[in-house]
Design brief:
Helix content is about 60%, strand content about 10%. By secondary structure, it is α/β, with parallel strands linked by helices. Helix 24 links the parallel strand 13 and strand 14. The protein is elongated, with a radius of gyration of 60 Å. The relative contact order is 0.10.
Length: about 700
């Protein structure tokens, strides 16, 4: 459980830098979201309302209007697919017809403005405002959107009506085309029938006959009957052969003789024995007609098993004698097999006889005169033409009825009504999308700006660039206290004061390994708060009861005297040029352990003075023994003064203004200190606030802890 709480706390802390970025740059985020809402609001106010009207059509089975029986050649109407209906609803021809119908309806029921708008709608544009949706199994919804509710519902109804009318017309056109085609076929067929009739009359006149030749007719019928009989005998021969094969298989599994128990003088047993014999014979008879797995064969086998069990039961009650007896089942099989063989031979003989008779009859028919056979061919062709003519007449009647029908395979299921509420623009959805889009763009912009930032904002960045630990993170203080206010500030429990005290403690930890008695405090450029940090750090040491000397080494832009309200006319420059002794130049403060050596009058050559032996002797003077010396120096990248002082002290602190110091400047400062051989002990991240540094979230805890 404790590990889970630690994990949750770490996850919360990992989100803090990102939250801090959003909080610091909230004006950008708010501006983008606001702009998105303004654009959305302008669109909602200026966008034209759109109304939607919906009609429905239903696909039905085609009407069955055929009065005559439908012949195999006649065409059965097919039900149109729902998806096809949906596509036809937005077809160009349907749309053109719908616009015409809507204009016709608006002529009597709509205002002049609506009529004018309808006339101005092009078919291509109208097709884009139609949305079709299929609903199983047979419904198609037709939705039309338009700024005018009157036009929307007029067009929705007109599309449905035009679609139904188009499909009805297409069905009638198809029936009409079929009718015309069939009529042409009938005319051609009539010509063929007339030709056959003329040839048949001519041939009959030539042969001096009126009816069919009876002999040829009888011969043809005889040939047909002989062929049927021949097929029957072939089937009987094959059946007898297969049954014989099956019985031979059964006979091979049965023994001719059986060892049976004979019950002496038992009428019940004798009766069961007779019954068993009868059942065996019936089984043999059934096997001649059916397969062994046939239900009838299975049923008789069950009866045989039941009879055998009854015989065994009766035999156990009487005395038995064992003897050999003929197997009745085997004998029955042999009898059936002999009978089947006779049937097979008889069928084979009849087959051969029928073949000979069929050949003789066909030879007799072929011997008829050639013209008589031509007569037969013409008669058969006449019969075929008459049957085809009858079929075509049936199809012609069916096509005529379908052509005259008024209802097709699609009907109007529901008409559209005039809409009162617009479907677009959807204000609530637009507002939600605008907020979401604004947040997305705003957040992306904020993090992009953060990624493109060139300033040092976090302790991690400062530590990576300078190569030294961050000893303190000082929150934003405004305005900077001076005089007695700075003493009161350092005695308070404010977060910035606690940060300075934390800096003092960290320096003491470093001194435990390598004593740090003289400390140089500098920065990369001006206005980073180094003088304020140096003054506050000296006060913090003095409040801890330690003897401290604060030296203002920035003789070009001194600030220590202003923070503590001291005299600037005497100070470091006076001592270095020999005008005053160190003891005479030191100034006291309300804190007894704290003494201050101000910058003094500005000399023409500050760097040369700081590089002189007088400065070295000053730092090694006996008056400063036992004191912690804190030196406020000029910025590293502006003058050479800090590079001169850095090798003379035990440690250098670099002050970084969060959100202000440029990374490149801090990197150059590190190189300068490395070249000068300075001992860089750490960094102070100053002026941290929600608007200037992602490191601010570290110091939220100072506020929460010390606000009471």
């Amino acid at each position: 459980m404790a590990e889970e709480r630690v994990t949750e706390r770490e996850e919360q802390l990992s989100l803090q830098p990102y939250i801090a970025v959003l909080v610091r740059r909230w004006p950008v985020l708010a501006a983008i979201v606001g702009a998105s809402l303004l654009i959305a609001g302008a669109y909602v106010r200026t966008a034209q309302p759109i109304y939607e009207a919906t009609s429905m059509v239903r696909v039905v089975a085609p009407p069955s209007l055929t009065l005559l029986p439908v012949l195999p050649q006649s065409k059965t109407p097919e039900t149109i697919e729902v998806s096809t209906v949906a596509q036809l609803a937005v077809a160009y021809l349907t749309i053109k017809d719908a616009l015409s119908r809507a204009s016709e309806q608006a002529r009597n029921n709509a205002s002049p403005q609506v009529r004018e708008q309808l006339r101005a709608i092009p078919a291509e544009e109208f097709s884009k405002s139609i949305v079709t949706k299929t609903q199983d199994p047979d419904i198609v919804r037709i939705s039309v959107r338009h700024p005018s509710p009157d036009i929307a519902y007029l067009l929705a109804n007109s599309v449905a009506e035009a679609l139904v009318h188009r499909l009805d017309e297409e069905a009638r056109a198809e029936a009409r085309a079929e009718r015309i085609y069939i009529q042409g076929q009938i005319q051609s067929l009539q010509k063929q029938m007339n030709s056959v009739d003329e040839r048949l009359a001519h041939l009959r006149k030539k042969l001096k006959v009126v009816n069919l030749d009876e002999e040829a007719k009888d011969l043809a019928e005889t040939i047909r009957q002989l062929r049927l009989d021949l097929q029957t005998q072939i089937a009987l021969e094959e059946a007898a052969r297969n049954a014989g094969t099956s019985l031979r298989s059964w006979a091979g599994r049965e023994a001719p003789l059986l060892s049976v128990d004979v019950v002496t003088q038992d009428p019940v047993y004798e009766e069961l024995k007779k019954r068993l014999a009868v059942l065996e014979v019936e089984k043999t008879s059934l096997l001649g007609r059916y397969q062994p797995n046939h239900p009838e064969v299975q049923k008789i086998e069950e009866s045989i098993e039941a009879t055998k069990k009854a015989m065994d039961s009766q035999r156990s009650r009487t005395g038995l004698a064992r003897q050999l007896a003929p197997n009745p089942f085997y004998g029955s099989i042999r009898e059936q097999l002999a009978q089947l063989q006779r049937q097979e031979r008889e069928a084979q003989a009849r087959k051969e006889a029928l073949k000979r008779l069929l050949d003789e009859t066909e030879q007799r028919l072929s011997a008829l005169p050639e013209m008589q056979r031509s007569l037969q061919d013409l008669i058969r062709r006449q019969m075929v033409l008459e049957q085809t003519y009858t079929n075509l007449l049936n199809r012609l009647y069916d096509a005529q009825i379908r052509e005259a029908a008024k209802r097709g395979s699609v009907i109007v299921a529901d008409r559209a009504y005039k809409p009162t509420i617009p479907v677009a623009p959807r204000k609530s959805l637009i507002v939600v999308v605008a907020i979401a889009l604004g947040l997305l763009i705003g957040t992306s912009s904020v993090f992009l700006m953060e990624a493109m930032s060139v300033s040092v904002d976090t302790p991690e960045e400062a530590r990576q660039i300078i190569g030294a630990p961050v000893l303190a993170i000082v929150p934003f203080v405004k305005p900077s206290p001076t005089g007695t206010d700075i003493l009161d500030f350092m005695t308070s429990r404010r977060a910035a004061a606690e940060s300075i005290r934390n800096l003092r403690t960290n320096i003491r930890f470093l001194s435990a390994r390598n004593p740090v008695r003289t400390i140089l405090i500098t920065s990369s450029v001006a206005r980073e708060g180094k003088s304020f940090i140096a003054t506050c750090l000296a006060i913090a040491y003095a409040q801890a009861g330690q003897q401290v000397v604060l030296i203002d080494g920035d003789m070009r832009q001194p600030a220590v005297d202003r923070y503590l309200g001291l005299d600037r006319s005497v100070g470091l420059s006076s001592v270095l040029v020999g005008e005053l002794s160190l003891q005479e130049a030191l100034q006291t403060t309300p804190l007894a352990p704290l003494k201050v050596l101000a910058a003094g009058p500005t000399p023409p050559n500050p760097a040369e003075l700081l590089e002189s032996s007088a400065m070295v002797n000053l730092l090694k003077s006996t008056e400063l023994e036992g004191h912690t010396i804190i030196i406020d120096s000029p910025p590293l990248l502006l003058v050479a003064d800090p590079n001169v002082l850095a090798p003379l002290v035990d440690g250098v602190l670099v002050v970084v203004h969060a959100g202000h110091t440029v990374r490149e400047a801090l990197l150059r400062s590190r190189d300068q200190l490395t070249l000068s051989g300075a001992n860089l002990i750490g960094v102070v991240l100053n002026q941290v606030s929600p608007r200037t540094g992602r490191g601010y979230y570290y110091y939220r805890y100072y506020y929460y802890y010390y606000r009471y």
